[in-house]
Design goal:
The chain is mainly α and 137 residues long. It has 6 helices and 2 strands; from the N terminus they run E-H-H-H-H-H-E-H. The longest helix is centred in the middle third of the chain and has 16 residues. InterPro entries: Terminase_7 (IPR057972).
């Protein structure tokens, strides 16, 4: 086995544990939503803050990744309104989301591990079996 070249751009072998889902964000975030989002509508602003509240945002740079998160928020809002469609636009959105680690495959490539928050109550008691709901009496 060869020694790793220190000039190599390969990622380290370790995984980064992201904060759990549902935890309050304590990472650096933009102080305000950019004006372009306000002009695009409330959906775009809400999408922007939803992105920055996600555990993946703990790994983003609030200055360097701001433009990319604005682009994702605008594209998602446009798709929700029905203004944008087509495979090219969806491909662009998927590529932007992958850069931000918003899909499971992207997180695996970035070596980010996402943990779910601890369940409240007894999760087994909330299971509903389809066979019980369709059973004829």
């Amino acid at each position: 086995m060869y020694a790793r070249d220190p000039r190599s751009h390969r990622r380290p072998a370790g995984w980064i544990d992201l904060p759990s889902i549902g935890s309050s964000p304590d990472w650096a975030r933009p102080s305000d939503a950019p004006e372009v989002l306000s002009r695009a509508g409330q959906t775009a602003v809400e999408e922007f803050w939803r992105l920055w509240d996600s555990p993946m945002a703990s790994q983003w740079d609030p200055v360097g990744d701001l433009a990319l998160t604005v682009r994702v928020a605008l594209m998602r809002a446009a798709l929700a309104r029905g203004d944008e469609s087509g495979s090219k636009r969806l491909t662009e959105l998927r590529a932007c989301e992958d850069r931000l680690g918003l899909s499971a495959l992207a997180r695996e490539r970035l070596r980010w591990r996402l943990h779910a928050a601890a369940p409240q109550g007894d999760p087994v008691s909330e299971v509903v079996f389809l066979s019980d709901t369709n059973r004829a009496e």
